Amino acid sequence: MCGIVGSISHSNVVPELLDGLSNIEYRGYDSAGISVQTDAGISTVKQTGKLQALRDLLSQQLVSGNAGIGHTRWATHGEPNTRNAHPHTNDHVAVVHNGIIENHHELRQWLNAEGFIFRSQTDTEVIPHLISYYYSRCSDPAQALNQALERLQGAFALGVLFNDDAEHIYAARRGSPLVLGCGEAEMSLGSDTMALGNGASQVIYMEEGDQACLGQRDIELVDAFGRTVSRKRVDNDIDHEQTGKQNHSFYMHKEIHEQPDTVARTLVHSYHLKNQLELDFMEIDRLSIIACGTSYYAAMVAKYWFEQLAALPVDIDVASEFRYRSPLMSNHGLAVFISQSGETADTLAALKYARSYKQQTLAVVNVAASSIAREADMSVQTQAGPEIGVASTKAFTAQLSVLGSLAIQAAQQRRQFSPEMARAAFTTLASVPQKLEQILSMESQLEAIGNSLADARDAYFIGRGSSYPIAMEGALKLKEISYIHAEGFGAGELKHGPIALIESGVPVFVIAPNNDLLEKTLSNMQEVVARGGRCILLGDKHSIKACGDDPVECIEIPESDPFTSPLLYVTALQLIAYYAALAKGTDVDQPRNLAKSVTVE
Questions:
Q1: Measured in whole angstroms, how far is the alpha carbon of residue 45 from the centre of its chain?
Q2: Contacts of residue 322, Cβ cutoff 8 Å, sequence gap at least 6
Q3: Dist CA 594 CA 508 (whole Å)
């Protein structure tokens, strides 16, 4: 949620601030703004709407300076308007903030009594006023910032400019991620590495409680105890050339089409990594998999795999619920945490809870140096590359690729698979990229189905076994980018309530691969047909033949092993959702009210 950038350089930083904000606009696009140190002091420009609105305003209000901070907002406290947009400023300081200040009501009352005037509805505005309160008493920026931070409760990543100090930018983090970029004559900060410009050849990942002072050529860091520290610098491996849309109209479309390659890369990486992980599944008596959103549906699929292939009991949890129900943890358990960004606040908090109960922890993330990867005992990086579209596509199939590989490893270690069976299962997984190419070649048919949903008010998705979470993921994709109300159900649950929603013409997607549950799934489909629902069946040629003369629209998916079918069927559903959104005229890459990286609870 929200994205922050900052840069101090020998040249004008405004273009770099705007480029950095553009690279992380997926974190929020309700409003955007920058504050820049100019010859006349701090100059602030901000605007509601997407970043282009700020660019247009800056083309009229020319601002230039060698140090600046910027912000793109996903609204938490206060509606999206210019007054609530960041940076928040006063006579002494400008602040950009990602996170939530939990005691802002208390601080606002106290600061009001001290004579400070609030102009926004945000929790953030207490920060510049609090810093100013202490700065007026000590005239030392670092000391004033430190004293202010001691009063704050909650999560934050901060970039701070002082009107009286044009030579530095200040930064701090607690509970929200923040990275620093190091160049030859330029230092920068950002919510993640995507925010850092090409001039940042190296990256420093700030630790919990760190504070930093950035000059043009150096960075000074202190830890949560006020001790001067040196943090490891790592090479910045972000290639901004690869983060463009290339020949695609939307990032989501590009990322869907990248899946044959990203799945193949992830499978190769996972296969070679399996012997390096210090995992003995024979010693593990229970697996807990925790995630949010799309990653949670990957966990649901993995539950079927681990239990059916490896005979390993699995609990799955939504991270936002996991730690608050005081779960009982096995003495010989493994807790797996799945996150595309590796910064998901709820998942990170759940990981810390599991570690406090002495669980062995494994992270499955797309960002190798993310907070979750660094906090876990072990981590596996999916090879999806940067995912810009807010609706996750290639990250999901890459997560499934990792989890499928781990399930095979577990099955072999637990003596459910012989070495020959394990090799055969890996071969089956390795066939997925080619079959994904076949799915992508069906795009015109999937486009027609998506277009036909333009006037739909509701849509439903049903499946059994590992197709049940794929039904839920298909529904999530459709509703988050097209705004059509959509729900996914276990097909057997239809008659326990959801069938009351079926009426003439309502679209119902039936996920029906040819497996031992096909007959039961088609029986549930008949219940929909009998009530006039519009059934759209996704199945292979055997599934379609089994439908007989039923009035059903069929999408033929390539034949596949039941083990790998989730990766194929979800790709078809991604394209259907994509074209439904285009038909509705919505913003595919930046759907309303959503942000890519959820870094607050």
A1: 28
A2: 290, 346, 350, 353
A3: 25
Q: Coil, strand, or helix at residue 191?
A: coil
User: Hey, is 427 helix, strand or coil?
Assistant: helix
Instruction: Report DSSP letters for 496-518, one per residue.
Output: GTGGGG--TT-EEEEE--SSTTH
Q: What are phi and psi of 40, to 5 degrees?
A: -100, 10
Give the other-Cβ count within 10 Å of 272's Cβ: 9
Is 182 considered catalytic here? no
Residues of the chain above pLDDT 90, percent: 71
Contact 77, 108 (CB under 8 A): no
Catalytic-labelled residue, pool 2, 213, 292, 535: 2
What is the tens place of the pLDDT at every residue in 235-288? 887 665 556 787 899 999 999 999 999 999 999 988 887 777 888 999 999 999
For 409-428, b/e burial (b = at least 16 CB within 10 A) is bbbbbbebbeeeebeebbeb
User: What are the residues whose beta carbons fall under 8 Å from the beta carbon of 267, sequence distance 6 or more?
Assistant: 401, 405, 426, 429, 430, 432, 433
For the chain, helix (H) and strand (E) counts, in that order, are 19, 25
Rounded CA gap, 290 and 354, in Å?
10
Residue pLDDT, tens place only, 115-143: 999 999 999 999 999 999 999 999 999 99
Beta strand pairing call for 286-291 and 314-318: parallel
Please say if 596 is a catalytic residue. yes
Cβ(94)–Cβ(161) below 8 Å? yes
Query: Can you tell me whether residue 365 is helix, strand or coil?
Result: strand
**Which residue out of 46, 254, 303, 596 is catalytically annotated?**
596
Cα 329 from Cα 388, distance rounded (Å): 35
Contact at 8 Å (CB) between 344 and 375? Answer: no
Integer Cα distance of 211 and 20 in angstroms: 21
- pLDDT higher for 29 or 105? 105
Backbone angles phi, psi at 486, to 5 degrees: -140, 145
Residue 5: strand pairing partners? 70, 190
CA atoms of 322 and 349, how far apart (whole Å): 9
